[in-house]
Amino acid sequence: MLNRALLIGFVLITVIYSCKKATNGADAVNIENEPYILEYGTTLPAPNLPMDNPLTKAKVQLGRMLFYEKSLSGDNTMACATCHKQENAFSDVSQFSIGIDGLPGKRQAMAIMNMAWNSAGYFWDGRASTLRQQSLMPIQDVLEMHETLSNAVDELASKPMYKDQFKKAFGSTSVTSEKISLALEAFMLTMVSGHSKYDQYLAGQATLNTSEENGRKLFFAEYNPGFPNLSGADCAHCHSGSNFENNLYMNNALDLESDILDFGHMNVTSNASDKGKFKVPTLRNIAVTFPYMHDGRFTTLEQVIDHYNSDIRTSSTADPALMATQSTGLMLTSQDKADLVNFLKTLTDNSFLTDQRFSNPH
C-alpha cells in the first residue's frame, strides 16, 4: 500500500510539473508574440497598419534597439537616432546632417512621427514606397551611414544579444536585411504623437489663450482678398486633417523657375509637372523640428510665415492656391503672425519628446 501511494504521488507530481512546464512554455511563446497595442489618443483616426508585418512587443523592441544601433554604420559611429533625435521629434536641428565620412546630406532630415498615417511614400521626394524600404536606405547611403547590408547583417549576427532578440521577434536566430527592415518599420510605426495642447483642447481638457485662439482661426480660415478682415492664412489648404498634412507632393513657391536646382518628386516620377515638388510634412511638433523646408533654408517659424505672407515665387509647378495670393500677400499683421506662431506651438507634444518607449534602450 505504501509503495502504491508513493507511486501515485510520483505520478501526480510528474503530471503537475509537466503541466506547469507546458504552461510556462506556452506563456513564453505568448510573450514573444504578444501584440503591441498602438495608442493614438482621441484626435487621430484608426491607422492603416501593414497586414504582413503585425506589431508585436518583441519586434518593436528589436526595432527600437536597431534604431539606436551604431554598428549599422560603416565605422560603428552612427545610428538612425544620430540624425533623428527624440527631443526634436526625431529630426535634426542641423540644416544638413553629416554622415560618417564628414559629408553633408542633400536635404534636411525629416521628422519621424505618425508614420502609421502616411500613405504616399517616404523621404522628401517619395523615393521609398514603404517604411520598411525607407529604413534600409540611409544605411546604404554614402552620404549617411555608408554601410553594406551584408556587413550590417554580419555585425548583428555576431552579437548573441541580437541573435536572441531576432529569435524572439521572428522565431529564428538568423539575421537578414528583410527582418531588419520589418523590425525598424514596426518600431517607427509606434512613434505616435497625439497628445499636444491642441489635442487636449479638442478633447475639452485645455483652453487656448487669446493669441493661440486667434492663430487657430487664422490657420483654418481661407485667403479672402475681397474681405481682408475675414481673410485667413489658409494653412489648412495643405496642412489639413488630424495629422496636419495631406500626403501630397507640392511646390510651395520657394523659388523662381530658373532657381529650382533640386527637382524633388520629379526625380522619382520623371514627370515635369512634379518639378520642385516635395512631400508636405506634418506640422505636429513643428516648433521643435527646425530648420524648415526640404533644404532647411528657414530657421524660424516667423521666417516660414513671412514666406507665405509676402514672398511667393513664380514657377510653372507652384501650387495655384499659393500663386493666387501673390498680388496682395496674405495681408497678415505683425500680431497675426505672432498669433499663428503661438498656435503652431500648441501642436508640440511634450510627452512624445520624452516618452521612454522611444528612447535609447542600450
SS elements, strand count? 2
What's the overall average pLDDT, rounded? 92
Return the CATH architecture of the largest domain: Orthogonal Bundle
Indicate the CATH topology of the largest domain: Cytochrome Bc1 Complex, Chain D, domain 2
General form: globular
Largest sheet descriptor: 2 strands, antiparallel
CATH fourth-tier homologous superfamily of the largest domain: Cytochrome c-like domain
Low-confidence stretches: 1-31
Tally of contiguous helical segments = 14
How does the helix and strand content classify structurally?
Answer: mainly alpha
The total tally of domains equals: 3
Strand arrangement, largest sheet? Answer: 1-2
The helix/strand order is HHHHHHHHHEHEHHHH
Radius of gyration computed on alpha carbons? 25 Å
Beta percentage is under 5%
Highest CATH level, the class of the largest domain: Mainly Alpha
Please give the share of residues in helix: 25-40%
3D structure, described in words:
With 362 residues, the protein is mainly α. It contains 14 helices and 2 strands, in the order αααααααααβαβαααα. The chain has helices at residues 2-32, 57-67, 80-83, 131-140, 149-157, 160-170, 177-189, 197-202, 210-220, 266-269, 301-310, 320-323, 334-345, 350-354, and strands at 249-250, 278-279. Helix 2 (57-67) packs across helix 7 (177-189). It folds into 3 domains: 1-30; 57-193, Cytochrome c-like domain (Cytochrome Bc1 Complex, Chain D, domain 2), CATH 1.10.760.10; 197-346, Cytochrome Bc1 Complex, Chain D, domain 2, CATH 1.10.760. Helices cover 39% and strands 1% of the residues. A two-stranded antiparallel sheet has the order 1-2.
